[in-house]
Design brief:
The complex is a heterodimer of chains A (135) and B (148). Chain A has 135 residues and is mostly helical. Chain A contains six helices and no strands. Chain A has a single domain, classed as Nucleotidyltransferases  domain 2 (Four Helix Bundle (Hemerythrin (Met), subunit A), Up-down Bundle), CATH 1.20.120. In chain A, helix 1 runs antiparallel to helix 2 and helix 2 runs parallel beside helix 5. Chain B is globular. Chain B folds into two domains: 32 residues; 113 residues, no CATH class. Chain B is of the alpha+beta class. Chain B contains four helices and three strands, in the order αααββαβ. The longest helix of chain B is centred in the middle third of the chain and has 19 residues. Classes of the chains: A mainly alpha (135), B alpha+beta (148). The interface between A and B is large, with 45 and 46 residues.
Chain lengths: 135, 148
């Protein structure tokens, strides 16, 4: 399984790609923004000794941590919603115009996720591509 | 900048898919494929169809795992309540999402919830997912879909 640093590097990589997809393929931009969040979350879980890969294992781990009070429930829900949007974008062929309208909300959800996990993963702030969500 | 030609754009997008999914590591990359279950069930006669029996035969009822079965019953009850309240029009239990093949990472429950607009239910489904997963210690995942 990957380590936190590797997940953060991939999150940065995805963050660089996502804006380039916004205009030609907003559906894929939503998905890539989700994978920014996915790697940030997995970086944190890896640091916590929970190096999971699957959506179900991550959902369980996040819920456990929220139950213990280690994570903010609103951040976990934002992550779940972003995953939901990404899944719909990939498999249910929503109109491209509709996905373009969803982009701002997807980015807001990502911001909420990154902002919360940055508190748990201070080194995240060392990556400008991710730190932009903290302002 | 993205390439302008369709071919080049496709390459860039394909690379993006590879990049975003590369963390899965152990599994070879394949292009996105539809879920095992059809994206949309045949249009029901009634708007409210509740739990789709056609799906149930594909789903492990969780007989050997009390927590899984309890979570499933709670999820079905919650979804039925959402139907009665008019929040969702129908729902289905799925055997899994196609991306979920990490069997060693445990059992999970998967549901699709339909509404006239998915925006109306996305937050509700996220809340329900978190509540049920916390309560039963079993991942309960939802996808919010627009009803045709």
């Amino acid at each position: 399984m990957l380590e936190a640093k590797e997940h953060l590097s991939q999150a940065v990589h995805n963050q660089r790609v996502a804006p380039q997809l916004e205009e030609p393929a907003p559906d894929w931009a939503v998905t890539v923004y989700y994978y920014v969040a996915a790697h940030v979350v997995r970086a944190y879980l890896s640091r916590e000794g929970k190096p999971y890969g699957s959506h179900k294992a991550v959902a369980k781990a996040l819920s456990e941590l929220a139950k213990k009070g280690d994570l903010d429930e609103s951040a976990v829900k934002a992550y779940f919603r972003l995953r939901d949007k990404s899944f719909t974008a990939r498999y249910y062929c929503p109109p491209i115009e509709e996905m373009a309208q969803k982009l701002p909300e997807a980015k807001e959800l990502l911001k909420k996720v990154v902002a919360h996990f940055a508190q748990k993963l201070p080194e995240l702030q060392g990556y400008p591509e991710l730190a932009q969500y903290l302002s | 900048m993205l390439a302008k030609s369709d071919t080049q754009t496709s390459k860039v997008l394909f690379s993006a898919i590879i990049m975003t999914t590369s963390w899965l590591g152990a599994q070879p990359f394949t292009a996105p494929t539809p879920p095992e279950t059809p994206p949309l069930s045949p249009k029901p006669h009634s708007q409210v169809v509740g739990y789709a029996m056609a799906q149930s035969s594909q789903v492990d009822p969780g007989k050997d795992c009390p927590a899984l079965e309890a979570a499933r019953e709670a999820a079905l009850a919650a979804l039925e309540e959402l139907v009665r309240a008019g929040v969702i029009t129908r729902y289905e239990e799925w055997p899994g999402f196609d991306e979920e093949d990490e069997e060693e990472e445990g059992d999970a429950l998967y549901f699709a919830a339909y509404a006239p607009s998915r925006d109306l239910i996305e937050e509700r489904m996220a809340e329900l997912s978190l509540r049920l997963t916390k309560q039963y210690d079993v991942p309960v995942l939802f996808v919010s879909l627009k009803d045709a």
